[in-house]
Amino acid sequence: MKILLVGAGLSGAVIGRHLAEAGHDCRIIDARPHIAGNCHTERDAETGVMLHVYGPHIFHTDDEGVWDYVNRFARFLPYQNRVKTTAQGRVHSLPINLLTINQFFGTTLRPDEARAFIESKADTSITDPQTFEEQALRFVGPELYEAFFKGYTEKQWGCSPTELPASILKRLPVRFNYDDNYFFHRFQGMPQDGYSAMVAAILDHSCITVELNTEYRPEMAAEADHVFWSGPLDGYFDYRLGRLGYRTLDFERFSDKGDYQGCAVMNYGDRDVPYTRITEHKHFSPWESHEGTVCYREYSRAAEPGDTPYYPIRLVEEKALLEQYIDLAHATPGVTFVGRLGTYRYLDMDVTIREALDTATRFVAADGDMSAFAVSPV
Ligand SMILES: Cc1cc2nc3c(=O)[nH]c(=O)nc-3n(C[C@H](O)[C@H](O)[C@H](O)COP(=O)(O)OP(=O)(O)OC[C@H]3O[C@@H](n4cnc5c(N)ncnc54)[C@H](O)[C@@H]3O)c2cc1C
């Protein structure tokens, strides 16, 4: 079959590769001048540092099949995400762990003592937390909430934590040991030559053609037997029912010599610091050495038409609009909506790859008979 894949990010590349290996003819287009979508990495012209152009990307998974898959196309080197935060004039370790608690409160508590201490701080008058703020106060009490959650959340989401649902903070966000590895997953690492090199290897197949700087046009679908769409779901329908809400990010680049901040990611929890974090990219490749260094200050705001959509908002209003777009999608034969934008969900890279592999496998097994969604967006 002739397959058109819109988007050369992980979704388009992984589905395209699987279908190409099954003998289908895959045309992959992307509006951007590069492959790899939001995982795109490139060397900085001034310093030679490998940049995570759309924000920091750390690969982590418990899915052995996905880990084997990415290692087929790239050499992964060990990398663990250890984040710090500057709040109220001091630097602390994240996620909140025993070191954070002991340094923040000036204590020397052991795990059980710290658990009891944090429980004593929790606001037990809140019996049925409805908002993010109530949930955080119920879990950790006012001091940790103010320092680590309130200002950061206001900046990240552009609204008060009293307007966000409690479900955003599902579990107690505190560790009662000194483990500061951000992720729990068994497999964690960074592709030695960056994500774009990995995606280039996935796309390197005789049945795949890639066209960059190429915006989708409806007549392209007429030339294909099936379309996989990894662009925005509402974008496919020209936003005719309105726009699904996203947060976008602005990155302010600056360069320096040597080591600017001593770690890859430094969060800023205080409300009066306008950015949410600073990323220093050379720390993502600790096996390389560069004289210069490049950092991004990261600012979050509501996405406007023309902005890069980053985080789907998915509150009550957006979910109602999403339902309407899902109905439109079901009434559109020959198109399957995939990936983070096509299904309007935040997806980590490993989940994106797993879903792409499963979608392509089902497509091949069903001889191309596939509905609008292989994975439900709700
Ligand atoms: C700030 C940030 C940090 C992240 N960090 C991590 C992390 O540390 N670890 C992790 O596992 N995951 C992380 N992720 C998630 C990761 O970015 C996604 O899993 C991944 O990008 C999803 O790939 P995709 O192919 O579905 O979407 P995308 O990468 O967005 O690719 C979609 C592509 O479609 C193209 N496109 C859209 N519309 C059109 C059109 N009309 N015509 C032609 N082309 C079009 C776009 O240009 C884009 O290249 C992060 C995400 C964000 C936002």
From TrEMBL:
It is an enzyme of class 5 (isomerase). GO terms for cellular component: cytosol. It comes from the Bacteria. Its EC number is 5.4.99.9. Gene3D superfamilies: NAD(P)-binding Rossmann-like Domain (3.40.50.720). InterPro entries: UDP-GALP_mutase (IPR004379), UDP-GalPyranose_mutase_C (IPR015899). Transmembrane segments: none annotated. Its cofactor is FAD. Residues 147-346 form the UDP-galactopyranose mutase C-terminal domain. NCBIfam families: UDP-GALP_mutase (TIGR00031). This is UDP-galactopyranose mutase. It comes from Paracoccus aestuarii. The gene is glf.
